[in-house]
Amino acid sequence: MKKDLVSIADLSKAEIYKLFDKARDLKDELKFEPRLPYLAGKTLALIFEKPSLRTRVTFEVAMHSMSGSATYLSQADIGLGKRESVADVARNLSLWINGISARTFSHKTVLELSTYSNVPVINALSDLEHPCQALADFLTIYDKLGRLEGVNLAWIGDGNNVCNSLMLGAAILGINMKIATPKDYEPKPMIVTQALNIAKKNKAKIIVTNEPVDAVKDSEFIYTDTWTSMGQETEADKRKAVFGKFQVNAKLLANAPRSYSIMHCLPAHRGEEITDEVLDGPHSIILNQAENRLHIQRAILATLLTS
Ligand code: CP
Ligand code: NVA
Fold it and tell me: What's the predicted TM-score (pTM) here?
């Protein structure tokens, strides 16, 4: 594997399946041992410019469960790029710690950390990608179906960071993905082009549309996320007005196949992109996704921090 996990496209299909195997092995081992020795003496720095529940807790618990430790550095603590340049933070942290997990506004910041640090850098969400989330999501689908190739996944809503990582990952893994967004909220053309190029080699179909009903038809997995990502708060009202037709609700799901699962990375904005009834309903696998954040990040850490 590469030194860093900045984009899900840093991984090959074989490397993704290897992470899935490792995630399962570690989960099984931890059933019998309260703590595993694999990251003894290692420390992960968590640089977070934005809030987090799942990502922060799962990285901290993952390190602890393998005998390592984590140190959380908020923007108020270190002033990344303000009190000190990103490059200097990366160079200094590399002297003391064994890995950096970074949640940033700009994707360029994660790239800069990766350029200037000697230790692995893991993207814990940027404005462009959320690779750890997408890996946990694919592991969730794999757990449920026992396969990934030829699976049909629909994305309903904003063409955002989570959508980008899912789209690239789907292309790598041979998953067909239909992305339905309002006009002007499609994923970035650069990422779509990258995904289409990867998809060709893996027999995956990636389709971008503005029609949510078309996207959910024939899709066994239906995924949505907030209409307003962190950092876009000033656009919230405008977005609410544009995204109405993209709510995942009973009416839209009347077009879904008989058997389908509902996915959401969380946090959810109940009553906006998804209704309570759907989020808490029998098709929802959102808590499996959240649980798998821990398992897949253990596998990522156990791999990157020991290479
Ligand atoms: N899904 C996710 O990354 O959640 P947090 O923002 O709470 O970390
Ligand atoms: N797209 C969301 C994901 C949160 C986990 C955001 O960036 O805020």
Answer: 0.98
Is the shortest distance between the CB of 134 and ligand 2 below 6 Å?
Answer: no
**Residues 205-238, buried b or exposed e (16+ Cβ, 10 A)?**
ebebebebeebbeebbbbbbbbbbbbeeeeeeee
Q: Could you confirm whether 225 is annotated as catalytic? A: yes
Q: Which two tokens stand for residue 72?
A: 């959380």
Cα 130 to averaged position of ligand 1 atoms, centre (Å): 9
* Strand ranges in the chain using DSSP code E only, listed in sequence order: 43-48, 69-74, 99-103, 121-123, 152-156, 176-180, 206-209, 221-224, 261-264
Q: How far is the CA of 163 from the centre of ligand 2 (A)?
A: 10
Identify the band that residue 307 occupies on the pLDDT scale cut at 50, 70 and 90. Answer: confident
Domains (range + CATH), the chain: 8-130+293-304 (3.40.50.1370), 132-289 (3.40.50.1370)
pLDDT tens-digit profile of 7-43?
999 999 999 999 999 999 999 999 999 899 999 999 9
Active-site position among 225, 264, 295, 297 = 225
Amino acid code (one letter) for 149: E
Catalytic annotation on 91? Answer: no
Distance CA(258)–CA(242), nearest Å, equals 29
Strands 43-48 and 99-103, sheet pairing: parallel
* Cα 7 to ligand 1 centre (Å): 17
DSSP codes of every residue in 177-202: EEEE--TT-SPPHHHHHHHHHHHHHH
